[in-house]
């Protein structure tokens, strides 16, 4: 048999495993060649004879460390480190930053030498990849050499001894470096908060990294830093500050976590995540203000009809209220506002990960805390035993959370949750994808209300321009809007050049647009027959207000640019249409589109 070893920058190889003998006749782990018997079994590393007739003394997991290291050296065409004499230079790297990182984060996994060689007994460790990246960012060409664990440990002891001799100077450097990284992080976050950014994106490509803020739904470039600074910030956030999730920063796999901090006297919770890019890595930070004012449903932008429907839904004794929308659409904020509007005599239990905003009349429970001490079965049985009127689960994102919602509702509890879905009518299909049985979806006791919401940019009243003044509107798009809106184009405004009031963006905020479906038997029959098109037509014929209708209210009030609205909710001539209109592509008066 064989075991796969993945080594960063190298083709994965297989090294042999077995019962301890490369050649020989005995049982045990003692010999590479020979006729003797090995004495040890179990898990560990054998230290027996390479040649001869003696007995092996160690325990083994089926592979000699020496054989494994030798074999890897052969495959990679590098000389393995089997003794201190195999190192032409025993000096540990002198770069203080790399020494500090190695001493602080890598234990006995590896050691970086002054000739840029990484010696390691575990070449498939993520820390080896991190070391290789750090060396590359310091404009060094790394080489990986497999080494016996005792060799790595011995040289690490040299590192610890030299650190003791260097003493205060290294500690002072650590403090200075960490202070510099901390100041950079604080500066970026402080500016983001001042500009009311909802997210911070760090996009590392090669040697540089662009920092962009999402402000009112738009991505704005803030600054550019070096890749070296980006790696330092990543290590600072994930290794030092993160309280939940990934605790090791690497660039080749997605990470997630969260951290608490304070800026301008305001407490913040940052949701951290990363996305590996073939040219580097993206680091995302979602900024959450747990103590910020919680707006009412009306202040959020729900219409009086929406508020009446929501008020009716939360008085139901059981069933599921599902709030949907893309990431960053304000779903959690809306749920918080709904919970704050509920009768305070009712008992509410909220299961979240992470717990974002504390409400005085709500019991907040961390999902990870429960699942770590008994799994999802333990969580579901616990929730069903709690004497609550309303339950909330922050987000349905996998089979476990979907099953928990199903258990809660069918046991007779009113349950609220959020889900990523493109529109209200796609919620049942998304629930089925996540494991809810189709027959449950049209059960009269299951779904009570389906909600979809989005946020669209609001035009700055100081610099917005009229529809006729928009010279950058291409001919084909103008023709399409003329056909769609007719005389209403007199009320439409477009994004202007920007001014002091809006920070030269043309956008002053974001407006909520939504659609709500109250479940009835007719809707359940459409779900049963999987007839979404017929369902939409039925709703429209009975006075239903789609998210498109809500958007048009803002459009004709001059609050939103139609182009930005379509980026958020789709084309005005497609969402509620049954047949695609190809005639829209015929050029007016024989003109070519500009």
Characterization of the model:
The chain has about 600 residues and is of the alpha/beta class. The protein has three domains: about 1-15 and about 65-165, no CATH class; about 175-290, Beta-Lactamase; about 295-585, Rossmann fold, CATH 3.40.50.300. Helices cover about 35% and strands about 20% of the residues. The protein is built from 19 helices and 21 strands. The chain has helices at about 65-75, 95-105, 125-135, 150-165, 170-195, 225-240, 295-300, 305-315, 330-340, 365-370, 375-385, 400-410, 425-435, 440, 475-485, 520-530, 530-540, 545-555, 560-570, and strands at about 1-5, 15, 110, 115-120, 145, 200-205, 210-215, 220-225, 245, 255-265, 265-275, 280-290, 320-325, 350, 360-365, 390-395, 415-420, 445-460, 465, 495, 505-520. The strands form five sheets. The chain has a seven-stranded antiparallel β-sheet. A hairpin with a 2-residue loop joins strand 11 (about 265-275) and strand 12. Helix 5 (about 170-195) packs across helix 6 and helix 11 (about 375-385) runs parallel beside helix 12. It is globular, with a radius of gyration of 31 Å. It starts with a strand and ends in a 25-residue tail after the last helix. Residues about 1-60 and about 160-175 have low confidence and may be disordered.
């Amino acid at each position: 048999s064989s075991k796969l070893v993945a080594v960063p920058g190298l083709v994965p190889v297989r090294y042999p495993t077995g019962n301890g003998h490369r050649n020989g006749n005995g049982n045990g782990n003692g010999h590479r060649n020979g006729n003797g018997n090995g004495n040890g079994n179990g898990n560990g590393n054998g230290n027996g004879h390479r040649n001869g007739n003696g007995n092996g003394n160690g325990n083994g997991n089926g592979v000699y460390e020496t054989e494994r290291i030798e074999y890897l050296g052969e495959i990679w065409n590098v000389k393995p480190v089997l003794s201190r004499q195999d190192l032409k230079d025993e000096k540990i790297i002198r770069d203080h930053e790399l020494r500090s990182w190695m001493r602080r984060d890598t234990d006995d996994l590896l050691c970086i030498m002054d000739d840029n060689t990484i010696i390691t007994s575990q070449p498939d460790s993520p820390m080896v990849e991190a070391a290789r990246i750090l060396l590359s960012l310091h404009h060094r060409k790394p080489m990986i050499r497999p080494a016996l664990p005792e060799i790595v440990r011995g040289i690490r002891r040299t590192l610890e001894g030299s650190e003791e001799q260097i003493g205060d100077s290294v500690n002072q450097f650590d403090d200075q470096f960490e202070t510099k990284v901390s100041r950079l992080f604080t500066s970026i976050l402080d500016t983001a908060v001042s500009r009311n950014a909802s997210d911070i994106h760090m996009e590392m490509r090669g040697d540089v990294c662009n920092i962009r803020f999402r402000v009112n739904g738009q991505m704005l470039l803030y600054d550019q830093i070096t890749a070296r600074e980006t790696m330092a910030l990543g290590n600072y956030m994930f290794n030092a500050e993160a309280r939940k999730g990934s605790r090791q920063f690497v660039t080749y796999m997605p990470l997630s976590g969260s951290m608490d901090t304070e800026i301008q006297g305001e407490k913040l919770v940052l949701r951290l995540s990363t996305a590996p890019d073939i040219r580097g890595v993206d680091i995302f930070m979602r900024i959450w203000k747990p103590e910020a004012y919680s707006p009412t449903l009306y202040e959020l932008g729900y219409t009086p009809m929406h508020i009446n429907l929501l008020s009716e839904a939360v008085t139901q004794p059981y069933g599921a209220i599902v709030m949907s929308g893309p990431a960053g659409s304000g779903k959690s904020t809306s749920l918080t506002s709904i919970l704050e509007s509920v009768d305070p005599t009712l008992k509410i239990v909220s299961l979240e990960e992470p717990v974002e905003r504390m409400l005085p009349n709500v019991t907040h429970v961390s999902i990870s805390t429960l699942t770590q001490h008994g799994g999802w079965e333990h969580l579901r049985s616990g929730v069903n035993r709690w004497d609550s009127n309303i339950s909330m689960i922050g987000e349905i994102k996998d089979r476990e959370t979907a099953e928990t919602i199903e258990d809660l509702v069918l046991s007779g509890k009113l349950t609220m949750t959020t889900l990523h879905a493109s529109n209200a009518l796609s919620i049942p299909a998304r629930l089925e994808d996540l494991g809810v049985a189709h027959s449950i979806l049209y059960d009269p006791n299951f779904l009570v209300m389906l909600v979809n919401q989005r946020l669209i940019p609001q035009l700055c009243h100081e610099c917005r321009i009229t529809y006729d003044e928009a010279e950058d509107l291409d001919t084909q798009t103008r023709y399409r809007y003329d056909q769609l809106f007719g005389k209403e184009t007199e009320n439409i405004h477009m994004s202007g050049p920007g001014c002091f009031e809006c920070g030269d963006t043309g956008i002053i905020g974001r407006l909520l647009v939504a659609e709500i479906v109250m479940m009835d038997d007719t809707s359940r029959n459409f779900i049963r027959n999987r007839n979404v098109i017929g369902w939409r037509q039925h709703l429209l014929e009975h006075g239903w207000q789609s998210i498109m209708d809500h958007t048009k209210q803002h459009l004709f009030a001059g609050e939103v640019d139609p182009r930005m609205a379509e980026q958020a909710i789709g084309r005005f001539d497609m969402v509620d249409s049954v047949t695609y209109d190809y005639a829209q592509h015929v050029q007016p008066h024989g003109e070519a589109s500009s």
